[in-house]
Structures are given as C-alpha cells and as structure tokens.
Amino acid sequence: MAASLQVARTQGLLWRRLFTGIKTYETNAVLLRNISTSKKNESNGLRGSKSKRKNIVLVDGVRTPFLVSGSDYKDIMAHDLARGALQGLLKRTGCPKDVVDYIVFGTVIQEVKTSNVAREAALGAGFSDKIPAHTVTMACISSNQSITSAMGLLASGGADAVIAGGVETMSDVPIRVNRSLRKILLSLNKAKTLGARLGLLSSIRPKHFSPELPAVAEFSTNETMGHSGDRLCASFGVTRKEQDEFALRSHTLADQATKAGNLSDLLDYKVPGKPVIVSKDNGIRVSSLENMAKLRPAFVRPYGTVTAANASFLTDGASACLLMTEEKALALGLKPKAYLREYVYVSQDPKDQLLLGPAYATPKVLEKASLKLTDIDVFEYHEAFAGQVLSNLKAMDSDWFGKNYMGRKEKVGTIPMDKLNTWGGSLSIGHPFGATGVRLVTTAANRLNSEDGKYALVAACAAGGQGHGMVVERYAS
Question: For labelling alongside 287, which of 130, 162, 200, 278 has CA 20 to 30 A away?
Fold first, then answer.
C-alpha cells in the first residue's frame, strides 16, 4: 500500500511538472511571438515602413586613382590596391579601425592566391584578425553588391559600421594553361611510379601549351560584351556619331571636374616597391570628333559602331566607402554625406540584350522609393559603352519599349542630360569592374552636396544581363 501511494505521488509530481512545463512553454511562446511582432513593427529593415527603418548613411568614400591597365599598377596585385583604399578611407574619415565591424569587397577576375581579397586586404591594412571580411562578385556591379550587402548587415543589426569596397586589376589577370594540359599535370601529381610519370610527360604535345586567356564574354552565349554593345546600338538606332559625341562629353566633363577639384574621392596612392605616387586618373583624354571618327570598329567589323574611343577601357583600381547606422555615425562625431535609401537588382535574358540594366532598374527603384523621375537631381549611370548609355536613355523614353518589354502603361521618361554624369563617367575616368559601384555612389553623394540637390539615382548594367539601381539622399543635419 505504501509503495502504491509512493508511485501515485511520483506520477502526480511528474504530471504537475509536465503541465507546468507546457504552460511555461506556451507562455514563453506567446511572449516570443509578441516580442517578434513588436520587433517587426519597430524594424528598420529594408522591407519595413520608411518611418521605422534604421537610417543607413554613407560617411565617405574614396578610391585609388583609376589607371589604364599596364601602366603604373602593372606590377602589383589586387589586394595591394584594396589595402590602399582601406587605409586611405580610414585616414580620410578619421575612423578608428576597431570601430569597423565588417568588411565587404567586390571583385570580378579573382586571383586564386587571394580569392577572398577582402580578407587579405583587411589584414594587410592592419585591421584586427577578429573583424570578418568576405568578397562578392556580380560582374560590373560587384561593389554595388558589396554596398547593399553592408546595408543588409546594418539594417538587420548585425553591424553598426561596415566598409564596402571593390577592386580590380586587369594588369594581373590569371592566365590558365588549357584544360588538356591541366588534366595531364594533375595526373602527373598523383602518379606513383617513375614509369607512369614518364608516360604522362611523353604525352605532352605543343598544342597543350596554348593558354586559356580571360575574355570579357558571356559564358552562356560566348558573346563578347563589345559585340553585345554593337547589337544594342543597332536595335535602338544609336549612331556612331552619337556615341563619339557622348564619349567626348564624358572625357571633357571628367577633365573639367579634375581641374576643378571635384573628384575629391581620389587618394594619393604610393605604388608598393616603387618611388611612385599616383594622384590622378590617367585615362582621361580630350580628343576631337575628327580623330575619333578615324578609328576602326573594335568588335563588329567593318560595320560596327563601338570603337576604342567610345568604350570604357581596361582599368586597374580600388574603391572603399564607410557605411554606418546614423546613430553610430553621430555618436562618433562623424558628419555623413548621404543616406542610402532604396535599391533594386534586375535581370534579363543575356541572349536578347545584355546591357539594359539601368532602363529596367530605374522605374523599379523610383517606385520603391515613391519618387518620380522629376524628383531626381543627380543621375550617375555607369558608362560601359557610350552606345549602352544612349540606348538605355532611348529605351526609357520609348512608349513602345515600356509597353512591350517592361510591361508598363507608358514610357519611363526622359533624363535631362544636364543632370547625367556631369563629372564624367566610366568612359573617361575608367572602369575597374569590381570598383565602379562605390565610385558611382560616392560621386552621387558628392554631387548632391556640390549642386545642392536632394535625391540622386545610381544605375548600372552588368554581365549576365543584370543591373542595379539605388536612390541616394543628401544628408541634412
């Protein structure tokens, strides 16, 4: 009897504990749901209401001078340029290294030895090994992606201060031996006997020594970007003369901006191992329409319209910008330059048209920001080719294209030329694939302050038929 009572008491105790546990679990679940709902309502994340979001600010951005590949940067690696941009950014902003929570860099043609170039550059620049860093790649919008990756970290509360940047060196692209020779060499490395090794070595023929050279071409279509540019110009009726005129405009405006000191994002860069300090871009060349007209088509011969004069050139360079939550920046006594607001990414079939990213991104990001084209004071559009920019402008100003390709009731509208790339662009300043996005955003912020504007729109195309658009708002303290 006593034993039975003891069993009953034990079972009762177990049931009470279980019941209490269930009630506690239910209570905690309710509390967690309430907290989650409250956090969601108070969220400043990218999909919350504008009034509830964390304000993400651009404190400042810098870049090494952009140089034509094969010039003063020809003997250095990408992480050297990226390190210089990081060190220059810290010096420019006065931000202590230990304030930075995370570093993101964009790049396109990666060196295998430094595949995570963000990490190698950060360590080389003297950042703590406790600060994480990762590298992103998205063709010509790689540093646009690094910026928006940083914004995600800041919006989610994962960081309060992030450096976003990008780097490219076309002077030091990796060149691989062909696949057949790679197979032989890998087999040679695994061969266990001398006879096996000699047999593999004897199979090598002269054809095995032809290298695999990198090319600015689509893997899915094998079409070079220049050929895509020519097709785009033909589709939108952009003439050779129009392209040359736009390219000359870019070089002229960049030359004027340089002489006026407007390109304040430029750093003085000491070339490692050489007594050389680079202080300005070296691709800006103001020519004449007569001289430009003498050049042969570069891609589609003899009838193409894209030439070396109206296309961006292969460029080496790095850029970096400091992003923070507004609260963090103000707590540190820093004066931001701009708010980074809405952004979008777009994509199209590269077999159709490769370079229409800005045309698709512009209306989407404006609608997301509840703005109209007429609200924008500054436009900074990437200039891969003169014809690419002009084709995008024509696409946005076409009711037919708007209805048949973009699914809109009418055209996007006309962008005033006196608001577009008034300090030059990629055609003249240069286009290090992984670094251009930061230059665009920084220039947009600097132009807003210089021209007393409120909103800027940054847009770019990229390989793969992709594109990016972002709204930047001038910071008003």
Answer: 278
Residue 41 — pLDDT band, cuts 50, 70, 90? very low
The Cα-based distances of 21 to 15, 16, 319 in angstroms read 10, 8, 55
pLDDT of res. 10: 41
CB hemisphere CA count around 16 (13 angstroms): 6
pLDDT of 29 strictly over 50:
no
Strand partners, 466: 347, 462
Closest C-alpha among 234, 287, 219 to residue 394: 234
Neighbours of 221 (CB within 10 A): 14
Residues catalogued as catalytic: 140, 461
Closest CA to 86 of 117, 122, 57, 134: 122
User: Where would I find the beta strands (DSSP E) of 306-438?
Assistant: 315-325, 338-347, 378-381
In angstroms, the Cα distances linking 241 to 237, 251, 288, 294, 311 are: 11, 15, 12, 12, 13
With beta carbons less than 8 A apart as the criterion, state whether 340 and 441 touch: yes
**Average pLDDT of span 119-146:** 98
> Closest by alpha carbon to 429, among 65, 74, 62?
65
* d(C-alpha 206, C-alpha 73), whole Å: 33
Distance CA 39, CA 46 (A): 14
**Cis amide linkage into residue 272, ω under 30° from 0:** no
Residue burial 360-399, b: 16+ Cβ < 10 Å; e: rest: bbbbbbbeebebebeebbbbbbbbbbbbbbbbbbbbbebe
Three-state SS string across 75-137, please?
CCCHHHHHHHHHHHHHHHHCCCHHHCCEEEEECCCCCHHHCCHHHHHHHHCCCCCCCCEEEEC
CB within 8 A of 7, min separation 6: which ones?
none
Q: pLDDT tier at 201 (50, 70, 90 boundaries)? A: confident
- Between the alpha carbon of residue 331 and those of residues 93, 99, 327, the distances in Å are 14, 11, 6
Burial label for 469, CB within 10 Å (0-12, 13-18, 19+), is buried
Maximum Cα interatomic distance, the chain, rounded to a whole number of Å: 114
CA dist., res. 371 & res. 369, Å (int): 5
Do residues 282 and 70 lie in contact, with contact meaning Cβ atoms separated by under 8 Å?
Answer: no
Among residues 61, 87, 62, the alpha carbon closest in space to that of 272 is found at 87
List the structure tokens of 335. Answer: 């004066």
Q: Which residues of 57-77 are buried (b: 16+ CB within 10 A; e: fewer)?
A: bbbbbbbbbbbbbeebbeebb
